[in-house]
Amino acid sequence: MAEPAEVVALTAPIDTLLAAAVARRFYLENRSKVEIAKEFGISRFKVARLLDAAVAHDIVRIDITVPAEIDVPLGRALSERFGLRHGIVVNVSRGEGGATAPADQRHTGRWLGTAAARLLSEIAEEGDVLGLDGSHAVDALLRGGHPAAAVRRGPADRGARAGPR
Question: What is the H or E stretch that residue 6 is in?
Protein backbone atom coordinates (compact mmCIF):
# COMPACT_ATOMS: atom_id res chain seq x y z
CA MET A 1 0.00 0.00 0.00
CA ALA A 2 1.38 3.40 -0.96
CA GLU A 3 2.31 5.90 1.71
CA PRO A 4 -0.14 8.82 1.90
CA ALA A 5 1.18 12.03 0.43
CA GLU A 6 2.35 14.60 2.91
CA VAL A 7 -0.21 17.34 3.47
CA VAL A 8 0.90 20.93 2.93
CA ALA A 9 1.31 22.76 6.25
CA LEU A 10 -0.74 25.92 6.39
CA THR A 11 1.50 27.86 8.77
CA ALA A 12 0.83 31.43 7.68
CA PRO A 13 -2.57 33.09 7.31
CA ILE A 14 -1.78 33.71 3.64
CA ASP A 15 -1.40 29.94 3.13
CA THR A 16 -4.82 29.36 4.66
CA LEU A 17 -6.35 32.07 2.46
CA LEU A 18 -4.71 30.58 -0.64
CA ALA A 19 -5.99 27.09 0.22
CA ALA A 20 -9.48 28.51 0.77
CA ALA A 21 -9.41 30.43 -2.52
CA VAL A 22 -8.21 27.39 -4.45
CA ALA A 23 -10.82 25.17 -2.77
CA ARG A 24 -13.60 27.66 -3.52
CA ARG A 25 -12.72 27.71 -7.22
CA PHE A 26 -12.41 23.94 -7.43
CA TYR A 27 -15.36 22.77 -5.32
CA LEU A 28 -17.86 25.60 -5.73
CA GLU A 29 -17.01 27.09 -9.11
CA ASN A 30 -16.14 23.72 -10.72
CA ARG A 31 -12.94 25.05 -12.22
CA SER A 32 -10.20 22.64 -13.24
CA LYS A 33 -6.88 22.34 -11.45
CA VAL A 34 -5.17 23.57 -14.61
CA GLU A 35 -7.35 26.72 -14.72
CA ILE A 36 -6.73 27.39 -11.04
CA ALA A 37 -2.99 26.83 -11.44
CA LYS A 38 -2.84 29.37 -14.29
CA GLU A 39 -4.80 31.94 -12.28
CA PHE A 40 -2.54 31.70 -9.23
CA GLY A 41 0.72 31.06 -11.09
CA ILE A 42 1.33 27.69 -9.43
CA SER A 43 1.53 24.12 -10.70
CA ARG A 44 -1.54 21.90 -10.89
CA PHE A 45 0.28 19.61 -8.45
CA LYS A 46 0.47 22.49 -5.95
CA VAL A 47 -3.27 23.02 -6.49
CA ALA A 48 -3.87 19.36 -5.64
CA ARG A 49 -1.73 19.65 -2.49
CA LEU A 50 -3.61 22.79 -1.44
CA LEU A 51 -6.94 21.01 -1.94
CA ASP A 52 -5.72 18.14 0.25
CA ALA A 53 -4.54 20.63 2.86
CA ALA A 54 -7.89 22.44 2.77
CA VAL A 55 -9.63 19.16 3.62
CA ALA A 56 -7.03 18.14 6.23
CA HIS A 57 -7.24 21.52 8.00
CA ASP A 58 -11.07 21.65 7.98
CA ILE A 59 -11.26 24.54 5.54
CA VAL A 60 -13.29 22.20 3.35
CA ARG A 61 -15.64 19.58 4.74
CA ILE A 62 -17.02 17.02 2.35
CA ASP A 63 -20.31 15.45 3.38
CA ILE A 64 -21.79 12.68 1.27
CA THR A 65 -25.34 11.90 2.29
CA VAL A 66 -28.36 9.99 1.19
CA PRO A 67 -31.78 10.59 2.68
CA ALA A 68 -32.09 8.84 6.04
CA GLU A 69 -34.99 6.77 4.79
CA ILE A 70 -32.88 5.14 2.05
CA ASP A 71 -31.08 2.01 3.28
CA VAL A 72 -28.14 1.77 0.87
CA PRO A 73 -26.54 -1.43 2.27
CA LEU A 74 -29.87 -3.28 2.29
CA GLY A 75 -30.62 -2.06 -1.25
CA ARG A 76 -27.24 -3.37 -2.39
CA ALA A 77 -27.91 -6.73 -0.68
CA LEU A 78 -31.36 -6.91 -2.31
CA SER A 79 -29.84 -6.27 -5.73
CA GLU A 80 -27.15 -8.91 -5.24
CA ARG A 81 -29.55 -11.52 -3.82
CA PHE A 82 -32.08 -11.25 -6.64
CA GLY A 83 -29.76 -10.23 -9.50
CA LEU A 84 -31.34 -6.80 -9.88
CA ARG A 85 -29.64 -3.97 -11.72
CA HIS A 86 -31.21 -1.48 -9.31
CA GLY A 87 -32.53 -1.98 -5.81
CA ILE A 88 -33.64 0.71 -3.41
CA VAL A 89 -34.94 0.02 0.06
CA VAL A 90 -36.98 2.72 1.75
CA ASN A 91 -36.79 2.26 5.50
CA VAL A 92 -40.08 3.28 7.07
CA SER A 93 -39.41 1.68 10.45
CA ARG A 94 -37.92 3.64 13.29
CA GLY A 95 -39.01 1.68 16.33
CA GLU A 96 -37.34 -1.34 17.84
CA GLY A 97 -38.13 -4.67 16.25
CA GLY A 98 -39.21 -3.01 13.01
CA ALA A 99 -42.30 -1.36 14.52
CA THR A 100 -43.50 1.40 12.24
CA ALA A 101 -43.94 4.71 13.97
CA PRO A 102 -47.21 6.55 13.22
CA ALA A 103 -45.34 9.64 11.98
CA ASP A 104 -43.52 7.49 9.43
CA GLN A 105 -46.77 6.14 8.03
CA ARG A 106 -47.73 9.65 6.94
CA HIS A 107 -44.50 9.93 4.99
CA THR A 108 -44.28 6.44 3.50
CA GLY A 109 -45.89 7.37 0.18
CA ARG A 110 -43.75 10.49 -0.15
CA TRP A 111 -40.58 8.56 0.66
CA LEU A 112 -41.46 5.81 -1.82
CA GLY A 113 -42.37 8.37 -4.48
CA THR A 114 -39.18 10.33 -3.95
CA ALA A 115 -37.03 7.18 -4.11
CA ALA A 116 -38.83 6.00 -7.26
CA ALA A 117 -38.53 9.44 -8.87
CA ARG A 118 -34.80 9.60 -8.16
CA LEU A 119 -34.20 6.14 -9.57
CA LEU A 120 -36.32 6.79 -12.66
CA SER A 121 -34.61 10.10 -13.35
CA GLU A 122 -31.32 8.20 -13.45
CA ILE A 123 -32.35 5.15 -15.49
CA ALA A 124 -35.39 6.07 -17.61
CA GLU A 125 -34.81 6.96 -21.23
CA GLU A 126 -36.99 8.52 -23.91
CA GLY A 127 -39.56 6.00 -25.09
CA ASP A 128 -39.39 3.74 -22.02
CA VAL A 129 -42.70 2.32 -20.86
CA LEU A 130 -43.44 2.44 -17.16
CA GLY A 131 -46.16 0.33 -15.60
CA LEU A 132 -47.45 1.09 -12.13
CA ASP A 133 -50.02 -0.91 -10.24
CA GLY A 134 -52.33 1.78 -8.95
CA SER A 135 -53.11 5.41 -8.46
CA HIS A 136 -51.34 5.64 -5.09
CA ALA A 137 -48.07 4.59 -6.72
CA VAL A 138 -48.52 7.09 -9.55
CA ASP A 139 -49.44 9.91 -7.17
CA ALA A 140 -46.43 9.16 -4.94
CA LEU A 141 -44.14 9.09 -7.97
CA LEU A 142 -45.42 12.40 -9.29
CA ARG A 143 -45.26 14.03 -5.86
CA GLY A 144 -41.69 12.72 -5.67
CA GLY A 145 -40.72 15.00 -8.52
CA HIS A 146 -40.41 12.72 -11.54
CA PRO A 147 -40.89 14.47 -14.90
CA ALA A 148 -43.51 11.84 -15.72
CA ALA A 149 -46.00 14.49 -14.54
CA ALA A 150 -45.81 15.90 -18.05
CA VAL A 151 -46.33 12.51 -19.71
CA ARG A 152 -49.62 11.82 -21.46
CA ARG A 153 -51.74 9.48 -19.40
CA GLY A 154 -53.92 6.95 -21.12
CA PRO A 155 -55.44 3.54 -20.66
CA ALA A 156 -52.93 0.80 -20.04
CA ASP A 157 -52.91 -2.71 -21.38
CA ARG A 158 -54.06 -4.80 -18.43
CA GLY A 159 -52.19 -7.84 -19.70
CA ALA A 160 -48.90 -8.24 -17.89
CA ARG A 161 -45.76 -8.75 -19.86
CA ALA A 162 -42.07 -8.61 -19.13
CA GLY A 163 -39.23 -7.33 -21.22
CA PRO A 164 -38.95 -4.65 -23.89
CA ARG A 165 -41.89 -3.58 -26.01
Answer: none
DSSP letter at 2? P
Q: Where are the alpha helices (DSSP H) in the chain?
A: 13-23, 33-40, 44-56, 72-82, 102-123, 135-143
Q: How far apart are CA 96 and CA 32, in angstroms?
A: 48
CB 141 within 8 A of CB 116: yes
Tens digits of per-residue pLDDT, 81-114? 999 888 888 877 643 444 444 455 556 777 777 7
Domain count, the chain: 2
The dihedral formed by the CA atoms of 123, 128, 134 and 137, expressed in degrees to the nearest 10: 20
Q: Element (H or E) spanning 60, and its range?
A: none
Write out the residue range of the structural domain in which residue 30 sits. Answer: 13-56
Angstrom distance (rounded) from CA 71 to CA 31: 33
Residue 155 covered by a domain: no
Whole-structure pTM value: 0.43
